[in-house]
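Dear support,

I submitted the protein below through the web form. The confirmation email said the job was done, but the results page showed an empty box. After a refresh the structure appeared. I'm attaching both so you can tell me whether what I see now is the final result or a partial one.
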Amino acid sequence: MRQSLRTVLMACAAGLVGCMTAPWAAAQQISSYAPVTQQRLENPEAGNWLLYRRTYDGHGFSPLKQINTDNARDLVPVWTFATGVVEGHEAPPMVNNGMMFVTTPGMQVLALDATTGDLIWRYKEKLPADLFQLHPTNRGVAMWGDKLYLATVDAHLIALDAKTGKEVWNTKVGDYQHGEYMTLEPLVVRGKVMVGSSGGEFGVRAYIAAYDADSGKQVWRTYTVPSPEEPGGDSWKSDAWKTGGGSVWITGNYDPKRNLAYWGVGNAAPWPGDLHPGDDLYTSSTIGLNPDTGEIKGHHQYHWNDSWDWDEIRPPVLINMQHNGQTIDALVHPARDGYLWTLQQTDNGIKYISGQPFVYQNAFKSLDPQTGRPTYDPEHKPVSGKEVSFCPSLWGGLDWPSESYSDQTQLLYIPANDNMCGQMLGEKKQLLVGQLWLGADPDSLKLLPRGDHIGELQAWDPATGKRVWTYPFPSQLFASVLTTAGGLVFVGGTNDRMFRAFDAKTGELLWQQKTNSGIVGMPVAYQVGDTEYVAVQSGWGVDAQRIQDSLAKTSMKLDPNAVPQGGVVWVFALRRHR
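What the results page shows now:
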């Protein structure tokens, strides 16, 4: 069964599916709500989705298996909900005991009945009229106790009553007029709500900060770009650290055993490396910090003196795996720089294990076998005053969308973009507060496709470092991956508007459904009663649309207007449950 946007809207009008009610509709209240505790976050029930990637380790894996390789072809939409908002819908539908909480661009939070799609309440933040949203999106609410936590594009952290959607407190985190903003889902550990700031493209010095979940008061703030007096500060060879970037875009992962939260840190600002000489810690790195104090306990920098806009914003996936005959606590990261990195958690920090390209890459000549530090090819490293090409493009081998690790197959599934190189002309420009400061001529930014395809859903065995299978797509693949114990891999991310399910072992395409728009959102699986559901937001925009626009100017000649916008929550179950 397939539904077009017209079908969805007609069904909305007829009352056949759950759709967004008018702004003046009376809000209801959730009659009962299951408070979220530390115990539940560390050991979530199989049927719920309480964290950004369901579990603290970031696997993006659901233990549900009612929907499996034998019956995936019987998946059908059981309800949809039109958000009434355009732009990129990137948030996972969070589910707690039958209640779904979804965020949209424009800072809306929707509380829906997870079995019917009926709207319970809707919250919408009033954004400043002068706000410039470089990335007008949001990636979800965090849960703790009876509250939800929303990080906003005007740099506020807001606590909502989960039952009513009413504000409990509203704390200013940063100054949006200086270019600070937030798009990530917060991470909560033992009553501390952690968020990270974005804005490197505006010359912002970024940070991770923690707030008390009850009061909204700041507990600590740690800058991802250290001052000269702090550890790592000597890696900046000029005063560029003051405007050094290091944005934190994506929710961290957490290891309860070591009490360490792992965060990905973005690129140095502005882009060309000669404008910020030095290694530039902790940009383009993974950092491990103590969530109680904010102290950085370890780090690994994937590439020093970033010049490509290859910000490594996703945290590594925490995997227990075999290495040289021993079980290690690994940190695995398919990076924007195009390399698949394997690191090891140790009592003394983070140890490099291996790195290898998972897409075509021409900027690195080699990696140091002990540290993983790359040696660069200067012909493919951008500098100011010179036009340089490099592979992969500034969108990298894998941008912000998340990979998934299946606890069942022990494979890592990467939504990669191969054969997509880029070009830029670096420029030295004065920083004006609140204005874009890329360090590159915007008109020089081009994509240079090569080969017969770009998008690839890849399956890797991290223990052996071998690729197991690949499913190619003609154009970009730009969405997060879900794996399940039913032996399935779910992903959207293509400009044909499809949502797909693959056999996790073989890569065989088992099912697909055309949606109203393109899917850049993160799929989830949940269960209410005896029924398993798969949910995802369809709503094209932001980087996926920008790639589409750029490819339209290449030999691929894509239609920049081919993918309609407009957000809809889609929920699927097996046909027999309708």
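Response: this is the final, complete result; the empty box was a page-load delay. Confidence is low (pLDDT under 50) at residues 1-26.
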